[in-house]
Amino acid sequence: MGRSRNNRRRSAAVEAVEEAVDGGLAQLIPDPDRSRAWTLLIDGAPQSHVDLDDPAHLSFEYQRRIGHVIDLAAPPGKPVQAVHLGGGALTLARYVGATRPRSTQQVVERDAALVQLVRRALPLDPNARMRVRAADAREGLAKAPDGWADLVVADVFSGARTPAHLTSTEFLDEVRRALKPTGIYVANLADGPPLAHLRGQIATAAARFAELALIADAAVLRGKRFGNAILVASDAPLPLAELTRRAASDPHPGRVEHGRALSDFAGGATPVTDSAAVASPAPPPSVFR
Asked: pTM value?
């Protein structure tokens, strides 16, 4: 069904917002199909999509996959304590607030100018229990109390690459310190053939957590193209059956790898330490065309 004439007029009247931020040129592009929804781009690379009228709507497939983990991290509607490393348009923090009211959240976003832009152009629910701090992700995580978080969500990119200091066992030691014993760590990773970065991140997480799973498109897992993969880790059992069902039934179906299959996929990769860590590979230009 097509949009109403009012919606078309409203979309036409709303203009994109462009502003220089610390990480480059930020653009907020209005969604033609949702009257108060926006896509955030940094230097032309899509970062986030947020619907202010419906913050439980997740448009990007990688965010929906993280959303599945958030949904299964605790009984439906139960408030959680969450740390978000990387803020963007605060899409995932808004999702937690919408689906788990009264949750307490800390968001760490290094780009202070981006935080100001998002606060101004995409205002938060004034009742949200959310603190947004402009700081480096690892430094901000260090301020979280021991055993505080039910969830730590990492979605940090600088110039479309995950910074090296967020890929190591030492970083994951800090994640584990902040998590409750049953807490879940979920990270948005990006890689392409030959998948050396992704395999190394699996080995790194396996050196620190008892349970792992990976959600991704089959084509990404086969090394056919560059794309996102969602790493899920915990010291408690993961809800693998339901996570697999939700990933498979998504508009962009994904596979969930775990156990021996995930170990085999890692292919003998070794854990990454601070001394050897490098940033994730840059995506090819064709990814954003």
From this structure: 0.94
